[in-house]
Amino acid sequence: MAIFDVSLTLKTGMLSFPGDPTVSIRPVFSRKQGDKFNLSLLSLTTHTGTHVDAPAHYVDSEATIDSMALEIMIGPGVVLDMRGINAIDRRVLEESALTDETRVFFKTNNSLKLREQAFSNNYTYITYDGAELLIERGVKLVGIDYLSVDRCDDECAPVHHLLLSSGAFIVEGLNLFDAPVGPCRIYCLPLRIEGGDGAPARVLIETTSN
Q1: For the chain, which domains are there?
Q2: At 136, is the secondary structure helix, strand, or coil?
Q3: Cα–Cα distance for residue pair 122/9, rounded to 1 Å
Q4: Among residues 141, 146, 142, 111, which one has the least CA distance to residue 17?
């Protein structure tokens, strides 16, 4: 058994989606400055780093991050190898190792891009017909290793709308660089934010291989 933390480390100035406020972590109290304890102030969005999109992100829905069914976030799943693929479409998924998993993470060339300081608009994304197939297969948790499942220049975000309208949750910003592909057990725990459209999350995968 091996456990992999596939969450990005939160830090000041970390990679963010264009137009989103950047992350800031600054000390309010500091022992080095003579205070009795250390305490920091976080400034970040609900979609910072590794995070979960609730249906309320794009859909008028009561399915907020604090009302989600926890059983969706924990359980067996699979990490699919999509390296070398530019767009995850229906054909690609039909030819993949996807079976009847409820939780699916995509490991792509994006894992390298996450290590860069500058945002890349040429990342691997999920197509609309690819999202349709995921819904048909009953997938409820869809994860990818960059900051959006949609194509960068598609402001209508059709894949977000389709997946979230189906009741599925999306995990973006997964750090899958060192994660093995194949079956695993997923633990995805977003912050419990009242009425949240999303939340940063700590995500672990547990495998049976060393």
Answers
A1: 2-8+45-207 (3.50.30.50)
A2: helix
A3: 23
A4: 146
**Residue owning tokens 């969450």:** 7
Residue 57 is a catalytic residue = yes
7 and 176 in contact (C-beta within 8 Å)?
Answer: no
In tens digits, the chain (210 residues) has pLDDT values of: 899 999 999 999 999 999 999 999 999 999 999 999 999 999 999 999 999 999 999 988 778 999 988 899 999 999 999 999 999 999 999 999 999 999 999 999 999 998 888 999 999 999 999 999 999 999 999 999 999 999 999 989 999 999 999 999 999 999 999 999 999 999 999 999 999 999 999 999 999 765
Instruction: Supply 132's token pair.
Output: 């349709």
Candidates 51, 57, 160, 161; catalytic one: 57
> What CA–CA distances, in Å, run from 49 to 22, 70, 93, 141, 190?
10, 21, 26, 17, 11
How does 25-59 read in b/e, with b if 16+ C-beta sit within 10 Å? eeeeeeeeeeeeeeeeeeebbbbbbbbbbbbbbbb
